[in-house]
């Protein structure tokens, strides 16, 4: 293993660098000493390549964010880096105008979709920072990105980091004179013209180069686990050397630490674990004696279905995304509820996403990745038949993830759902509740009825043996992921008719409420 | 197992039905006998559900195509079918206006992307038929879809069928009076308004209901292995029963046959196999003594790279998609060529797709699926580091697919490439050729050089032992997939410098040629 030469300024953790007027005061005079470029760069590059292979072996990802003034040389840096990095393990994501499907989702959706699988390196040529400025920041007279945007960014990065990945963030800095020169050189390039996206806020990145605003953004998103590095790119050679150095030191440091700092996080959860055990089951409050007869059920069902049909039309017209989550005991009747719900809807506007064991490709990503990428576009309804809550239910009980992982999941899920809701989504979460005796009756029915036989497997019986463990997992889930904006609805489902009506009524009133809010 | 009741007309293979004026002469008076609907439908539905589970077990897909006049009730039929089919195994794909990414690809790209994974059922609510009419058929005065479009459709379906899947195609037929009534009922639905897509050719589906044109289209695409069924949908109940019947008979018949008729296909390949063995290696013609010195190489390289830089700009401006395929012996220098090529390009306009073993999700699809979905959008360049030719190289030699499968692949690949080219793509295919001694030299070099050590694995040595088998696979590949529009370029690469220049020059002249054609 070669080590990084100490010839130039060595990488400093950026949080010590961040201060007011940081960019304006930045020293841009750094140059690689004449005639020494090759002898400095070559060992750095060899080390970078070696480190990237090392990261790959550990099965974690490196996410490189490239931001900077317009014309600061992001493309040129990437062109230098690409031959060094293993092309089989690296992908560049140029971020420009979102396409029409992307525009119909929350801002982070397209970044989730582009996350590298484990072992891969992603280079974002512009990123959620530029996207935040262009898509969310509307106050040209203010000098600050709104706190909620900053929070979203930090939450997003925290999700990736707590999953064990490494994020490296670079801001390429050049002087005004140099910028003018470079912009002139590239003014005819269609790839620059592609940056129409940036033009919308070109004052910030170009004309008056809004130092105050960029300073503020960098400072507020300069987290210990995902610090910014300002790159002096006045000389491309110097800038490139600084990037290699930073990459190497950061990756070395991260590899030494082991698993991306997960250890610290474990501690904070101990208290909550204790608290949980004291609690009596919230589920016991559900009144399972409620029921409807068939004669009562039929006309009520028909009435709500008609109402839901009209509501879907409104949802579609008003561009509202809707997410409906079904969780519940085995044989609680999720499938039956989903059929009654879906019958109301035009298939052009909804989809059912059945969630089972993640496939191998999904396993190569953050566990929320497969859900993010399935969220509905505006005006559309996605019904999840089981969901991300598997993390704190089956994965917890069966030990498919570590305790730290499922403990962390409550917070991660709350953050994700909050983002969905702020993006305008109607989110409805159902726990279909039956008691143990009712489940046994249904299992036996399935077992003995030849047409339902395929529905029951040995796994169902095995899960049933763990009823108590699942019960406490469910209680914890409901308590810790019930927020004012994303509450759970526990459906007493011992009576199938009652359960279905309760589900449809809940959806009906949630949609009515949202449509009223909008109008 | 229940059997399909013979109460109504039994499913007839549609090719016997197809004739001129078929639609106009069609009997639309069929009705379900009064009071018997439930007793007819319920056993049919149970059987449909059972058959779908059976298909799933076999690991093949069912693709249901729903076409018909505007207002003929596609949505209603799907709403009836959905609760019958397993929601975990079924997905509806409403086909409307392509989004901007889809519009930047060939017409079939979005259908490839939506193909179900093995075991799943896909219902296309409108399909490549409507897309062909709307996107390609421009002659309202003609009465026929152009032969090339018909050929594309038949090729597409043949690819799916020879992979073992089942395609069911329905055309929903109603009378003019009934259509008028229904269109009036749904005129305010936004899901109908979404069908702006159809409006473009509304004469065909609505106003004058172009019988001649639709007849022609149905007839020309009514293949023995993917026949059309005209559904009399004047009565929805009757139409639905007909669809269930057709589904059940077709699936039963297909399950009996075993593997979607692959057997017939095997025979036709025997002759070609013989032919192949007689042939001397085309590779031997490559002059491996050609070389450049470093002093010659450097300035030539620089010159071409500059030219390629400008050409990429043109490609981007002219909206030309470019696909560059690299195949070659292990250690032939593919990586080095790709780096030199990519150095010329702006990373915003190209991507390298390294192709390895397919992941589990990819394995759940047609082997070409993972390539189709990676094809570039207009103006972009995709460089494949290995490719679909793996099917007839490593998969053939290592026995990862059956002989029938790789034998069939030559034709399938030619069809796919031809489609690419007709969609305007520049396709360049390289075989990097070195001799056995040169490979040994390079392997030994990698083995002994600590910085290159990671590049060589036991697998490389194992592959080398099968040099002769690979050589005949390569020869067959080149011979059988060299077409006038998609020829192979064999690059003599014993001299790395010579090889790289030859590659870059080939790309240069191919791009120049295309740009000239367009201008």
Could you describe the 3D structure shown?
2 copies of one chain form a homodimer. Chain A is an alpha/beta fold and 519 residues long. Chain A folds into 2 domains: 14-256, Rossmann fold (3-Layer(aba) Sandwich), CATH 3.40.50; 269-513, 3-Layer(aba) Sandwich (Rossmann fold). Helices cover 50% and strands 12% of the residues of chain A. Chain A has 23 helices and 10 strands. In chain A, strands 2-3-1-4-5 form a 5-stranded parallel beta sheet, sandwiched between helices. In chain A, helix 13 (262-278) packs across helix 19 (403-422), helix 14 packs parallel to helix 23 and helix 15 (334-343) crosses helix 23 (496-518). The longest helix of chain A has 24 residues, at 294-317. Chain A starts with 36 loop residues before the first helix and ends with a helix. Mean pLDDT of chain A is 87; it is low at 1-17 and 260-275. The A-B interface holds A 46, 53, 75, 78-79, 82-83, 87-88, 91-92, 94, 96, 99-101, 125, 189-191, 194, 313, 316-317, 335, 338-339, 342-343, 346-349, 351-352, 354, 356, 359-362, 364, 385, 451, 454 and B 46, 53, 75, 78-79, 82-83, 87-88, 91-92, 94, 96, 99-101, 125, 189-191, 194, 313, 316-317, 335, 338-339, 342-343, 346-349, 351-352, 354, 356, 359-362, 364, 385, 451, 454. Chains A, B: It comes from Methanospirillum purgamenti. Chains A, B: Keywords: Transferase. Chains A, B: This is Polyphosphate:AMP phosphotransferase. Chains A, B: InterPro entries: P-loop_NTPase (IPR027417), PolyP_AMP_Tfrase (IPR022489), PPK2-related (IPR022488). Chains A, B: Pfam families: PPK2.
């Amino acid at each position: 293993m070669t080590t990084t030469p100490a010839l130039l300024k060595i990488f400093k953790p950026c949080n010590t660098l961040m201060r007011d007027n940081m960019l304006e005061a930045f020293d841009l005079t750094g140059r690689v000493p004449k005639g020494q470029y090759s002898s400095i760069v070559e060992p750095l590059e060899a080390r970078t390549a070696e480190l990237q292979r090392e990261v790959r072996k550990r099965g974690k990802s490196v996410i490189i964010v490239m931001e900077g003034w317009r014309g600061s040389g992001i493309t040129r840096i990437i062109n230098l880096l690409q031959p060094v990095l293993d092309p089989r393990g690296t992908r560049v994501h140029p971020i420009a105008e979102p396409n029409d499907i992307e525009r119909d989702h929350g801002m982070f959706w397209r970044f989730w979709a582009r996350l590298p699988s484990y072992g891969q390196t992603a280079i974002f040529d512009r990123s959620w920072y530029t996207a935040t400025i262009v898509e969310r920041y509307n106050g040209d007279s203010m000098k600050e990105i709104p706190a909620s945007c900053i929070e979203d960014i930090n939450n997003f990065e925290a999700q990736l980091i707590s999953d064990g990945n490494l994020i490296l963030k670079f801001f390429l800095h050049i002087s005004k004179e140099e910028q003018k020169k470079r912009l002139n050189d590239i003014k005819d390039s269609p790839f620059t013209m592609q940056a129409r996206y940036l033009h919308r806020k070109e004052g910030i990145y170009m004309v008056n180069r809004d130092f105050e605003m960029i300073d503020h953004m960098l400072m507020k998103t300069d987290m210990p686990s995902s610090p910014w590095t300002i790159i002096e790119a006045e000389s491309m050679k110097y800038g490139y050397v600084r990037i290699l150095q930073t990459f190497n030191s950061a990756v070395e440091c991260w590899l030494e630490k082991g698993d991306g700092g997960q250890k610290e996080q474990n501690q904070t959860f101990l208290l909550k674990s204790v608290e949980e055990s004291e609690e009596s089951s919230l589920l016991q409050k559900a009144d399972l004696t409620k029921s409807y007869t068939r004669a009562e059920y039929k006309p009520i069902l028909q009435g709500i279905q008609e109402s839901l049909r009209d509501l879907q039309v409104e949802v579609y017209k008003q561009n509202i995304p809707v997410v409906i989550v079904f969780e519940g005991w085995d044989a609680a009747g999720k499938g039956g509820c989903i059929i009654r719900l879906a019958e109301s809807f035009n298939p052009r506007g909804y989809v059912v996403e059945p969630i089972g064991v993640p496939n191998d490709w999904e396993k190569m990503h953050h566990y929320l990745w497969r859900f993010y990428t399935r969220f509905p576009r505006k005006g559309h309804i996605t019904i999840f038949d089981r969901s991300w809550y598997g993390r704190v239910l089956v994965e917890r009980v069966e030990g498919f993830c570590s305790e730290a992982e499922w403990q962390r999941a409550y917070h991660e899920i709350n953050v994700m759902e909050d983002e969905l809701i702020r993006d305008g989504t109607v989110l409805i979460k159902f726990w279909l509740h039956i008691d143990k005796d009712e489940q046994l009756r249904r299992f036996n029915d399935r077992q003995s009825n030849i047409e339902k036989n395929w529905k029951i497997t040995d796994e169902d019986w095995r899960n049933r043996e763990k009823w108590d463990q699942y019960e406490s997992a469910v209680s914890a889930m409901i308590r810790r992921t019930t927020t004012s904006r994303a509450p759970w609805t526990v459906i007493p489902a011992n009576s199938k008719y009652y359960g279905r009506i309760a589900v449809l009524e809940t959806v009906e009133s949630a949609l009515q409420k949202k449509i009223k809010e909008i109008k």
